[in-house]
Amino acid sequence: MQEIFDLQWQLGVHILKNIGLDYENTIRDAEKKPVWIENYRKALSAELAELIREVQEFGIGSSNGKIEVVDMLHFLVSLSHIVQVEPSEVSLTGHDLDESAFPSCAIQTFLALDDLQNSLKWKWWAKGGGFKPEKARKAVLDLWKCFGDFCALFHMDLETVKKIYLEKNRINFQRQEQDYNEDTKTEADNRSIHA
Asked: Are 43 and 182 in contact (CB under 8 A)?
């Protein structure tokens, strides 16, 4: 898991450098930390939605479903960097689940994402609040449990996750070099991944 955390750090450095930011300073800055937690939370939510769509259309067994699970991992590791969850604190050991557990896993992930959002002062109309780092850290650890369950549902062990992650990480670097953006986004490059 340490290698995945290190590679995601390198990707974060590369991506933020492309927009004129220093990754380490950005995720350590007390004022910027909540902004980037929210950025990565939204991105992870979008990947969860893509996974749900994939499962609705093709079922649990699809290769692209595995890729969508690993896409969630990218943002989960970046969130872990921010709230200082270490690789040694996480495990891909999920519960023994069958396909019928997918909706429950999706709901638990959504609830953990909601807890993460609630660790931030996002209700601009409410008094008090503020960033709650302990609550954010707990929510990220809960997201790791959800991720482990998704891995179990898709029959992915650490080696399978790592293999897919390495291929997707390479693609993500290529996308950055090719000025990847909303207008040019395509999933064609994902089809080269052997899940």
From this structure: no
Rounded Cα distance, 51 and 69, in Å: 7
Q: Which two tokens stand for residue 185?
A: 């986004």
Spatial distance between the Cα atoms of 124 and 34, rounded to a whole number of angstroms: 14
The pLDDT tens digits for 132-166 are 999 999 999 999 999 999 999 999 999 999 999 98
Cα four-point dihedral sign 143, 86, 131, 43: negative
Q: What is the pTM of this model?
A: 0.88
Return the CATH fold of 2-192. Answer: all-alpha NTP pyrophosphatase fold (1.10.4010)
Q: 83-91 — which CB contacts under 8 Å span 24+ positions?
A: 83/37, 83/133, 83/136, 83/137, 83/140, 84/137, 85/137, 85/140, 85/141, 85/144, 86/5, 87/1, 87/2, 87/4, 87/5, 88/1, 89/141, 89/144, 90/1, 90/141, 90/144, 91/144, 91/148
